[in-house]
């Protein structure tokens, strides 16, 4: 590696926006300080300093959503409530550029105008909301759109885990493109985070959940952003699905036995409770079908699936099994006042392990097996392998007790081999996207991209790994203009899929 250190380099950083923050000076909330200290300034920079070398065949953008609050909660802040900020690192011709923008949701705009929080967060009772309206399956929440990000039909879409709008951003400039309308068919109940973009067909699969019967809906958007399939899915009651999976022919929905306690719910309280006496139910539906076939498996909650594919009579479904969905054995190392709520945020608290379910379509039975003893989550795959037989999952390890990722593991799901990298003391990464090398044909012929928050050096970097050699550490470290808040879900969009990617010499010039 060349010995140029990004800290000694200068880079032109353009400030493109500032927003009002009413957070207290010296804020000591554990998820608004330290690695979670939020941003208030939007910046753009080109030709970022690099240690190592950015491969010329790394071509596209890494997009990461971030919970980035700007106002204190009405009473109790939870990190899932934070407003959305997208950080973008683009790679082109061996150089990198950066931009960050808030997602200007309806709720964000209203709270900017009011100068305070108006809706209740997930750790607060809905009654504390100052507004009678709101979004989300629970109701009276702000649709922060800060959970997930995907790129569909050349547009970046941010989404919210409690269901809400899909906010559209230019995936190169992060300019605000409004909300998805689906030509008038966007559901009033909103859609959940983790819609699935299918590269081969340009389709996007989605689901919505809520407190009204039938409690779940599933649908398909085509490459022209039209709703081409939408079907109700009956559940026994309100559930809290977070993710879905798909194969070549099927969508896979879930009914996990972690849901709002029905008695408390009848009294207007939303208490998520694990019901170990109930099975995990996995619903298999033809991608354009309406008849859901349910399979039962050992009780758990699954936050994220990794992949699924068909093999003979079976559907193979991989995801992260939670050994302790309520994190009863978990601890929170920070301020004890927050222990009850925040112990549920850590991977070690939830005991998340890579797991495989085999759903036999001929017999209706399920076989399941643990694929790893390691506690990991947030698994990413080569996007070309989605819905197909695959070999590698790239997942994060968690800092004990915290919603922070302290390392990266490449799981070989065929052999069980694991290749690990730890970011180092005080350094936390985000969900790590796979960027296939331009012209690649092998599954691991590509790069892994993550964004760090480095509390030791007080900086952030975007790290590039050789996907086949995770343990060797990053091949390039790109310095970002400032230390940015820890964040989670991310995606990779190849330059070839981005409108205007080669239209200008200046990658940010399109704005
Ligand atoms: Fe998620």
Write structural notes for this entry.
This protein is mainly β. The protein is built from 4 helices and 35 strands. It has helices at 106-114, 262-266, 339-342, 347-350, and strands at residues 13-18, 41-45, 50-52, 60-67, 84-92, 95-102, 148-152, 155-159, 167-169, 176-179, 196-197, 204-209, 215-221, 227-234, 245-246, 250-255, 258-260, 272-274, 280-286, 293-297, 305-311, 314-322, 352-360, 366-375, 377-380, 392-398, 405-412, 418-422, 427-428, 433-436, 446-451, 453-454, 461-466, 476-479, 490-494. The mean pLDDT is 96. Residues 147-148, 193-194, 242, 304, 489 line the site of fe (ii) ion.
List keywords for this structure.
binds fe (ii) ion; mainly beta; six-stranded antiparallel β-sheet; globular; 511 residues
